[in-house]
Amino acid sequence: MSGAADNRDIVTAAVLIIGNEILSGRTQDVNLNYLAKRLAELGIKLSEARVVADIPDEIIAAVNALRARYDHVFTTGGIGPTHDDITSECVARAFGLPLIRHPEALQRLEQHYEPGKLNEARLRMANTPEGAVLIDNPISAAPGYRIGNVYVLAGVPAIMRAMFDTIAGTLRHGAPIQSRAIGAFLGEGVIAKGLGEIQADYPELDVGSYPFFRQGRYGASFVIKGTDPSRIEAAADSLRRLIRTLGAEPIEGELPE
Protein backbone atom coordinates (compact mmCIF):
# COMPACT_ATOMS: atom_id res chain seq x y z
CA MET A 1 0.00 0.00 0.00
CA SER A 2 1.36 3.39 -0.92
CA GLY A 3 0.56 6.39 1.26
CA ALA A 4 0.85 8.81 -1.64
CA ALA A 5 -2.91 9.43 -1.72
CA ASP A 6 -2.69 10.73 1.85
CA ASN A 7 -0.47 13.58 0.68
CA ARG A 8 -3.53 15.30 -0.81
CA ASP A 9 -4.76 15.78 2.75
CA ILE A 10 -1.56 17.29 4.15
CA VAL A 11 -2.02 20.83 5.45
CA THR A 12 1.20 22.84 5.74
CA ALA A 13 2.35 25.78 7.80
CA ALA A 14 5.29 28.10 8.31
CA VAL A 15 6.36 30.20 11.28
CA LEU A 16 7.93 33.63 10.83
CA ILE A 17 9.68 34.88 13.96
CA ILE A 18 10.24 38.63 13.83
CA GLY A 19 12.62 40.56 16.04
CA ASN A 20 16.19 41.79 16.44
CA GLU A 21 16.13 40.51 20.02
CA ILE A 22 15.95 36.92 18.82
CA LEU A 23 18.84 37.30 16.38
CA SER A 24 21.00 39.11 18.94
CA GLY A 25 20.55 36.39 21.52
CA ARG A 26 19.02 38.74 24.09
CA THR A 27 15.76 36.81 23.95
CA GLN A 28 15.47 33.05 23.62
CA ASP A 29 12.62 32.02 21.35
CA VAL A 30 10.27 29.40 22.80
CA ASN A 31 7.32 30.09 20.53
CA LEU A 32 8.55 27.88 17.70
CA ASN A 33 8.71 24.82 19.93
CA TYR A 34 5.17 25.41 21.18
CA LEU A 35 3.75 26.01 17.71
CA ALA A 36 5.49 22.95 16.24
CA LYS A 37 3.97 20.68 18.88
CA ARG A 38 0.48 22.19 18.72
CA LEU A 39 0.38 22.15 14.93
CA ALA A 40 1.40 18.48 14.86
CA GLU A 41 -1.39 17.69 17.32
CA LEU A 42 -3.84 19.42 15.00
CA GLY A 43 -2.63 17.59 11.88
CA ILE A 44 -0.80 20.55 10.38
CA LYS A 45 2.72 19.96 9.10
CA LEU A 46 5.15 22.69 10.07
CA SER A 47 7.34 22.81 6.97
CA GLU A 48 9.45 25.92 7.47
CA ALA A 49 10.51 28.43 10.10
CA ARG A 50 12.35 31.70 9.54
CA VAL A 51 13.76 34.39 11.80
CA VAL A 52 14.01 37.91 10.39
CA ALA A 53 15.24 41.19 11.79
CA ASP A 54 13.15 44.33 12.19
CA ILE A 55 13.85 45.36 8.60
CA PRO A 56 10.70 46.18 6.59
CA ASP A 57 11.84 44.82 3.23
CA GLU A 58 12.98 41.56 4.82
CA ILE A 59 9.70 41.07 6.67
CA ILE A 60 7.61 41.87 3.59
CA ALA A 61 9.60 39.49 1.41
CA ALA A 62 9.34 36.69 3.96
CA VAL A 63 5.58 37.14 4.45
CA ASN A 64 4.95 37.05 0.70
CA ALA A 65 7.20 34.04 0.11
CA LEU A 66 5.69 31.98 2.92
CA ARG A 67 2.02 32.82 2.33
CA ALA A 68 2.38 31.80 -1.31
CA ARG A 69 3.89 28.45 -0.42
CA TYR A 70 2.03 27.22 2.68
CA ASP A 71 -1.58 26.84 3.82
CA HIS A 72 -1.03 28.74 7.06
CA VAL A 73 1.60 31.28 8.12
CA PHE A 74 2.04 32.30 11.76
CA THR A 75 4.09 35.38 12.61
CA THR A 76 5.27 36.11 16.14
CA GLY A 77 6.53 39.40 17.47
CA GLY A 78 6.47 43.02 16.43
CA ILE A 79 2.90 44.05 17.29
CA GLY A 80 3.60 45.95 20.52
CA PRO A 81 3.60 49.72 21.19
CA THR A 82 7.23 50.66 20.49
CA HIS A 83 8.82 52.18 17.39
CA ASP A 84 10.44 48.89 16.36
CA ASP A 85 7.13 47.01 16.39
CA ILE A 86 6.61 47.17 12.63
CA THR A 87 4.99 43.84 11.83
CA SER A 88 1.51 45.21 11.10
CA GLU A 89 2.85 47.90 8.79
CA CYS A 90 4.89 45.30 6.92
CA VAL A 91 2.06 42.77 6.64
CA ALA A 92 -0.21 45.49 5.25
CA ARG A 93 2.42 46.35 2.64
CA ALA A 94 2.91 42.67 1.79
CA PHE A 95 -0.80 42.39 0.99
CA GLY A 96 -0.96 45.77 -0.73
CA LEU A 97 -3.50 47.01 1.80
CA PRO A 98 -3.77 50.23 3.78
CA LEU A 99 -2.88 50.12 7.48
CA ILE A 100 -5.92 51.25 9.45
CA ARG A 101 -6.86 51.74 13.08
CA HIS A 102 -9.21 48.81 13.50
CA PRO A 103 -12.42 50.04 15.20
CA GLU A 104 -13.01 46.88 17.23
CA ALA A 105 -9.36 46.68 18.29
CA LEU A 106 -9.56 50.31 19.40
CA GLN A 107 -12.71 49.57 21.40
CA ARG A 108 -11.00 46.66 23.17
CA LEU A 109 -8.06 48.84 24.16
CA GLU A 110 -10.34 51.62 25.39
CA GLN A 111 -12.16 49.12 27.59
CA HIS A 112 -8.91 47.66 28.91
CA TYR A 113 -7.00 50.80 29.86
CA GLU A 114 -7.98 53.29 32.53
CA PRO A 115 -8.93 56.77 31.29
CA GLY A 116 -5.84 58.70 30.26
CA LYS A 117 -3.65 55.59 30.01
CA LEU A 118 -4.32 54.84 26.34
CA ASN A 119 -1.55 56.93 24.86
CA GLU A 120 -0.49 57.17 21.22
CA ALA A 121 2.08 54.39 21.61
CA ARG A 122 -0.53 51.97 22.89
CA LEU A 123 -2.96 53.02 20.19
CA ARG A 124 -0.50 51.59 17.64
CA MET A 125 -1.58 48.14 18.88
CA ALA A 126 -4.98 48.76 17.25
CA ASN A 127 -3.44 49.12 13.79
CA THR A 128 -4.09 46.30 11.30
CA PRO A 129 -4.26 45.84 7.56
CA GLU A 130 -7.70 46.79 6.23
CA GLY A 131 -10.02 43.77 6.33
CA ALA A 132 -8.15 41.92 9.07
CA VAL A 133 -10.10 39.61 11.38
CA LEU A 134 -9.10 40.02 15.01
CA ILE A 135 -7.61 37.24 17.14
CA ASP A 136 -8.57 37.47 20.80
CA ASN A 137 -5.97 38.25 23.44
CA PRO A 138 -7.36 36.97 26.76
CA ILE A 139 -4.35 38.27 28.71
CA SER A 140 -3.69 41.90 27.78
CA ALA A 141 -6.52 42.85 25.38
CA ALA A 142 -4.37 44.02 22.44
CA PRO A 143 -5.46 41.58 19.72
CA GLY A 144 -3.64 39.73 17.02
CA TYR A 145 -5.32 39.25 13.67
CA ARG A 146 -5.66 37.20 10.53
CA ILE A 147 -5.38 38.50 7.00
CA GLY A 148 -5.67 35.91 4.25
CA ASN A 149 -3.75 32.85 5.42
CA VAL A 150 -1.42 34.85 7.68
CA TYR A 151 -2.01 34.80 11.44
CA VAL A 152 -0.24 37.64 13.25
CA LEU A 153 0.48 36.75 16.88
CA ALA A 154 2.27 38.39 19.79
CA GLY A 155 5.88 37.62 20.60
CA VAL A 156 5.42 37.34 24.39
CA PRO A 157 5.12 33.57 24.87
CA ALA A 158 2.17 33.51 27.28
CA ILE A 159 0.18 35.90 25.09
CA MET A 160 1.14 34.07 21.89
CA ARG A 161 -0.04 30.76 23.36
CA ALA A 162 -3.32 32.29 24.51
CA MET A 163 -3.91 33.79 21.07
CA PHE A 164 -3.12 30.53 19.30
CA ASP A 165 -5.47 28.59 21.55
CA THR A 166 -8.34 30.85 20.54
CA ILE A 167 -7.88 30.03 16.84
CA ALA A 168 -6.66 26.42 16.99
CA GLY A 169 -10.12 24.96 16.51
CA THR A 170 -10.76 27.08 13.42
CA LEU A 171 -7.67 26.07 11.45
CA ARG A 172 -7.94 23.83 8.40
CA HIS A 173 -6.05 20.69 9.23
CA GLY A 174 -5.36 17.12 8.18
CA ALA A 175 -5.04 13.92 10.18
CA PRO A 176 -3.06 14.31 13.43
CA ILE A 177 0.64 13.64 13.00
CA GLN A 178 1.81 10.67 15.05
CA SER A 179 5.33 9.47 15.81
CA ARG A 180 7.26 6.44 16.96
CA ALA A 181 10.75 6.67 18.49
CA ILE A 182 13.25 3.82 18.51
CA GLY A 183 16.85 4.15 19.63
CA ALA A 184 19.99 2.06 19.34
CA PHE A 185 23.65 2.17 20.26
CA LEU A 186 24.73 2.38 16.64
CA GLY A 187 26.68 5.11 14.91
CA GLU A 188 24.78 6.96 12.22
CA GLY A 189 27.40 6.00 9.66
CA VAL A 190 26.67 2.32 10.32
CA ILE A 191 22.91 2.54 9.88
CA ALA A 192 22.68 5.36 7.33
CA LYS A 193 22.36 3.18 4.21
CA GLY A 194 19.61 0.97 5.63
CA LEU A 195 17.79 3.93 7.14
CA GLY A 196 17.75 5.62 3.74
CA GLU A 197 16.24 2.49 2.23
CA ILE A 198 13.45 2.51 4.83
CA GLN A 199 12.73 6.15 4.02
CA ALA A 200 12.55 5.26 0.32
CA ASP A 201 10.12 2.41 1.08
CA TYR A 202 7.85 4.75 3.06
CA PRO A 203 8.00 8.09 1.22
CA GLU A 204 4.89 9.44 2.94
CA LEU A 205 6.62 9.19 6.34
CA ASP A 206 9.39 11.33 7.82
CA VAL A 207 12.25 9.19 9.16
CA GLY A 208 14.71 11.21 11.22
CA SER A 209 17.99 10.33 12.95
CA TYR A 210 19.20 12.14 16.08
CA PRO A 211 22.67 11.15 17.37
CA PHE A 212 23.68 11.02 21.03
CA PHE A 213 26.60 10.06 23.27
CA ARG A 214 25.51 8.30 26.45
CA GLN A 215 26.94 5.73 28.81
CA GLY A 216 30.25 6.23 27.05
CA ARG A 217 28.83 5.07 23.72
CA TYR A 218 27.59 6.62 20.53
CA GLY A 219 24.08 5.96 19.33
CA ALA A 220 21.04 7.56 17.77
CA SER A 221 17.32 7.94 18.25
CA PHE A 222 15.25 7.32 15.14
CA VAL A 223 11.86 9.01 14.90
CA ILE A 224 9.20 8.00 12.39
CA LYS A 225 6.40 10.51 11.81
CA GLY A 226 3.25 10.32 9.73
CA THR A 227 -0.53 10.23 9.77
CA ASP A 228 -1.16 6.50 9.14
CA PRO A 229 -0.49 4.40 12.28
CA SER A 230 -0.28 1.14 10.30
CA ARG A 231 2.40 2.55 8.00
CA ILE A 232 4.33 3.95 10.96
CA GLU A 233 4.28 0.54 12.65
CA ALA A 234 5.36 -1.22 9.45
CA ALA A 235 8.30 1.15 9.09
CA ALA A 236 9.14 0.67 12.77
CA ASP A 237 9.23 -3.12 12.25
CA SER A 238 11.64 -2.64 9.36
CA LEU A 239 13.79 -0.41 11.55
CA ARG A 240 13.88 -2.96 14.36
CA ARG A 241 15.00 -5.67 11.95
CA LEU A 242 17.67 -3.39 10.54
CA ILE A 243 19.04 -2.57 13.98
CA ARG A 244 19.25 -6.26 14.90
CA THR A 245 21.01 -7.19 11.67
CA LEU A 246 23.65 -4.60 12.58
CA GLY A 247 24.28 -6.26 15.93
CA ALA A 248 22.38 -3.95 18.27
CA GLU A 249 19.09 -4.13 20.14
CA PRO A 250 16.27 -1.62 19.50
CA ILE A 251 15.36 0.58 22.43
CA GLU A 252 11.71 1.58 22.35
CA GLY A 253 10.60 5.14 23.02
CA GLU A 254 12.49 8.33 23.68
CA LEU A 255 15.78 7.69 25.44
CA PRO A 256 16.29 9.54 28.73
CA GLU A 257 19.09 12.06 28.96
Overview of this protein structure:
- This protein is α/β, with parallel strands linked by helices.
- It has two domains: 167 residues, 3-Layer(aba) Sandwich (Molybdenum Cofactor Biosythetic Enzyme, Chain A); 75 residues, Alpha-Beta Plaits (2-Layer Sandwich), CATH 3.30.70.260.
- It has nine helices and twelve strands.
- The strands form three sheets. Strands 2-1-3-8-7-6 form a six-stranded mixed sheet, with helices on both faces.
- The longest helix is centred in the C-terminal third of the chain and has 17 residues.
- The relative contact order is 0.14.
Summarize the structure.
With 257 residues, the protein is an alpha/beta fold.
Supply database-style keywords.
257 residues; alpha/beta; Molybdenum Cofactor Biosythetic Enzyme, Chain A; Alpha-Beta Plaits; 6-stranded mixed β-sheet; 4-stranded antiparallel β-sheet; 37% helix; 26% strand; elongated; disordered N terminus
